[in-house]
User: Fold this.
Amino acid sequence: MQSDIKIIERERIEFENPTVIIGFPDIGLVGTIATYHMIYQMNLREVAYIESDDFPPVTVIHNGRPVSPMRIYGNKKLIFVVSEIPIKPSLLYSISRKLVKWFKSKNVDLVISLGGIPHPRRLEIEKPKVYGISINEYTDKILKENNVEGFEEGIIVGPYAVLIYECMKNGINSIYLMAESHATYPDPESAAIIIKLLNKILNLNIDVKELIEKGEEIKIKSRDLMKRTETALKEMQKIQEHEMPMMYR
Amino acid sequence: MKRWSFSWDPGGFLEPLIEIKEYGNEIIITADLPSVEKNDIEVYATENTLEINAKMRKKYRFERWGTMQRGVSFSFFRKVIELPSQVDIENVKSRFSKGVLEIILPKKSHRRRIDII
Assistant:
């Protein structure tokens, strides 16, 4: 049964072919930490929120007011989609399709999903590497111009797996950036690396100094979300990402 | 009936995130211990359990969080782990790097190689 997902806009914004950045809870909470930092640094407003009767009965309280755990922030040129709850596997398709339909209605130019890719020797890596998945020649060029190594063969599982596929089907330019990270521990360092790359790609100037300085506190504050995310990722068989696809050539 | 368990304790303890990997002859446990120095970690092992206690470099108080939580200063990590197999506590090794504690516990087993004929 198709879930009834709604995107409710808080205000009318005349978007100008915006870029969308998505930070759903995933490996190392890389995308979540990176998007929250960018939203905070850019002082962006909540412009819309996502709701569904199929969501767990969770309301988040921020600044003394109840808000939806899945929210959209932005301005005319940039849109950020964040979630404070891991997305249930049963909702991944409905949410992705709804978002892609909304992106299309807003003439979105590019969707960038931010995530982590677990590295078993993460502790020994000084500078995590970022890999990218691209859907067409336009997005191939973005990766190439920014020296992002492509992901040629493999399996991806989770919210971004569905989202990038839906974007491709609907002709929306999309890339999925994955920074090497801890699998089950929040990784602010990897989030900082991915923000630095976004600064290059989108010509932004977001400072990551505070993110690095507050890294330990961020790790402490995000323990519970990381734990819930780990459970959700297990449920959606995230482990499959380590498996080899049927490479017959 | 399973009791609710929180990841924090009003006494100022936080439960660290941990990862347990079980291999043929050893168990590797890692724990994420941000804001902790190596000398402030205590690890105790029995054949069946591992206890991690670590003092944080500073106290964390989240004054806008929850109700009773807002009055708690968190300054320790504590976790007691039931091990999936019995271990040889005389040969446990550990290291601490970039806020992550890694403990390698050899299994107390009578594993021996089988000859292939």
Summary: The CA atoms of residues 24 and 115 of chain B lie 17 Å apart. Chain B touches chain A at residues 7, 14-17, 19, 32, 34-35, 60, 62, 74, 97-100, 102 (CB under 8 Å). The radius of gyration of chain B is 17 Å. Chain B has no helices and nine strands.
